[in-house]
Amino acid sequence: MTRPLIAILRGITPKDAAACAQVLVDAGITTIEVPLNSPDPLTSIQAMVAAVGKSAVIGAGTVLSVAQVKQVAAAGGSIIVSPNVNGAVIRATVDAGLQSWPGFFTPTEAFAAIDAGATGLKLFPGTMAGPEGLKAMCAVIPHSVPVYAVGGAGPANFAQWRAAGARGFGIGTALYTPGLSVQSVATRARSIVAAYDAAIED
Length: 202
Hints:
The protein is an alpha/beta fold. The protein has one domain (5-201): Alpha-Beta Barrel (TIM Barrel). It contains eight helices and nine strands. Strands 5-4-3-2-1-9-8-7-6 form a nine-stranded parallel beta sheet. The protein starts with a strand and ends with a helix. This is 2-dehydro-3-deoxy-6-phosphogalactonate aldolase. Keywords: Carbohydrate metabolism, Lyase. InterPro entries: Aldlse_KDPG_KHG (IPR000887), Aldolase_TIM (IPR013785).
């Protein structure tokens, strides 16, 4: 079962990349981003694509330029996540055949991203807008464009965010912090997936 969860592995190193990707997929998290401010991120992306590329969507986060989009595409990535709305980055991503998930915080930014061709939107930082802020914006954002909450959204409040309109989530430090063992990542991933499944059933 594929769930609308994006694993954000900020700080991961190439030596752990493939193994972490595998345990995430085994747990049921099949979209993984490696933020470009991680050590040697393109090598990690290549390792993940080689390990689980047929069963997972692998790509990069904190993508800020068209040049970086091209680098991620060359590394085999298929999703581009950004903390901001940059029309040139979104268009370059779409032109390369990759998914584009820019970060937004206002309706103006949301519609600018949609106009540029974004696949979906990332409310960031979610903790500042809160579920009520998201709910208000989802009243005008087209339902055809999925909105994921990132930052302040997690196992403790999945249900609340979903009720506000979140269609998925980006999970960072609750899932991974630099130096965490692969087994610990696996344990956290299973717990997060269980919490998400429970939120859906409620």
